[in-house]
Amino acid sequence: MKNIPWVVKPIVPEEVYTDREEFLEYFYKAALEAAHRRTMSTVLLGQRRMGKTEIFKRVVNRLFFEQDPKSPDSVVPVYFSFPDTIENKKDFALKYLENFMRYYLAFYTNQPDIITGNTKGEKLINLAKEIRPFFPFKKTLDLAIEWHDDIVKDYSVIPHQDALEVPRRISDLNDSTIVMFLDEFQNTRLPQYNFDIVGFMQEAVESPTCPHFVTGSAMSILAREIIGRGSLFGRFHGHDIKSLSGYWGTELAHKSACYYKIEVPETMAPVLSEKCGGNPFYINAVVHQAAELGQPVSNEKALNKILAVDITSGFIWGELNDQVTKWISRINEYNITKWILYLSALDENTEEENRGRLNIERIQQELLKREGKNVPLDTIRDVLIKLSRGDLLEYLELGGWFRRVKDPILLEFLKVWGRIEVEGHNHNLVQYDLESRYGKALKRFHEYKGYLAEVHMSQILISAQKKTLSGHYFNSEKDIEMPWRFIFVKNRMRLESGKGREIDVIAASGSEIWVCQSKWVTGKKIGIAPLKDLISQAEIVKKDLDPEKIQMWIFAHDGLTKQAQAFAEKHGIFWSKRQEFDELLEHLGLRKLPDL
Ligand SMILES: Nc1ncnc2c1ncn2[C@@H]1O[C@H](COP(=O)(O)OP(=O)(O)OP(=O)(O)O)[C@@H](O)[C@H]1O
Ligand SMILES: [Mg+2]
């Protein structure tokens, strides 16, 4: 494993870590900008296992090792993760304050061991006193030692408030900069914390000398209950993190395959990423499982089988089972809760108007049928709200309705879990069922090479935002100004009027929509028919989304026939053959198409 210096150890090996550049840069720069008082407290919000914690840790390490602590513009990074069990206010206060002191001392004296060695209590204070003569801010160091003493000796009336405010007070007094990276922030809402944290954070987070960056694993609690209302409302800038793009998910599948030493062919990597919904944890889990089974991911069938094994008994099972069990054990009415969660995963609302909306009455009927219990609708609703706090389903608060999570693997897991844990079916049988169902599942992808190129096309659009591209890549006379920002870039999207037809790639900015098609055909040039097809797709887009401008683009591996070239020019269709496409990828710093 490659060695990168750290004060808080990341979990993902360097060889596997993929992308997330945008977030690493964003937080790194935002932290440095705090020295110029231009940074606001920020919350990083996203579904489970998207890599939020990894981002925080990596940024903290970079800030620690890549700055000169003697520079007046240097920024002290501090990482803290709110534990989910806590004894009392005093313990918490000491934990929080000592953690801060470790980073404070370590950063200015260039001694990472103070953090990694987890020096605590009296030892830490003695160390601070020893360091004092060499420390740039003696007065505030004395104060920190004094505040610590006050908490230890119970002189502090509200110890946790004092501890939470220390970083800000110190940076204010020194006119220095400290950036707090707080993880698992939702834990402050747990009943175990029978004292208020959030209320006392208001002062702390509003400081330009000490912005607080927070994240956590329960997005709904963070967004809705902590940041979205009450004393912290409006005090945070929000930043969202989503799944990896198809391109980066594909890269991760390759890196992971290399790390675990198992074969994932070029054409299967994008399929693997897609089936995992671009979730980095799932992608790693499936590749790791393939290695455990000694089963290369040679085709879609093999992939389905590995996925089925992992969901029913592998890494995904372990992780999600843990998550679900932890969460529902906190809710009273344990048995009903289990049933409601299971039934909510089964409830497929296909009525046109209510697509995706959970049907609470139907859940009630099922409960009666299966458990023989007549549970009032209000109780069901109440349980659903509690489940939504754990991100196990979505609660649309304003409309007062619920829907299933948009995480295909979690949904599949919940169905399997319900059969085993709720209905009491035999684990092996359920595993067998899923494996054979997945084995028989229809191929979702008909053209693997085409899909691979699609994934590259969408990444080109994402990476080219705000740029001007030479027309040469697209066989266009003029250079091309790419939109400033695409609101979405999607593969295989179906639009309402399209009668179920999929558009290979569609990318929409406020005024301009790109409609793209991928034809990985070798040995012959593409004729007019696919271009006509592309035009009819663009017409569907026009009808449904009514953009100011539509741009069509086709990837044709071996190019277009003479006739098709004339047709493309007449209709303003951009086209790229393999060579231009590869050049464009290189120009944008992306990997060229593989040789298949
Ligand atoms: N950029 C990445 N490259 C490769 N793997 C990643 C990446 N980010 C995350 N992972 C994988 O996902 C796992 C979860 O990452 P992490 O703990 O940072 O996610 P999280 O968003 O903090 O999750 P939670 O919501 O549970 O707190 C990692 O252990 C790793 O397997
Ligand atoms: Mg996390």
TrEMBL record:
InterPro entries: P-loop_NTPase, Restrct_endonuc-II-like. Gene3D superfamilies: P-loop containing nucleotide triphosphate hydrolases (3.40.50.300). Transmembrane segments: none annotated. PANTHER family: ATPASE DOMAIN-CONTAINING PROTEIN (PTHR34301:SF8), DNA-BINDING PROTEIN-RELATED (PTHR34301). This is P-loop domain-containing protein. It comes from Desulfonema limicola. The lineage of its organism: Bacteria, Pseudomonadati, Thermodesulfobacteriota, Desulfobacteria, Desulfobacterales.
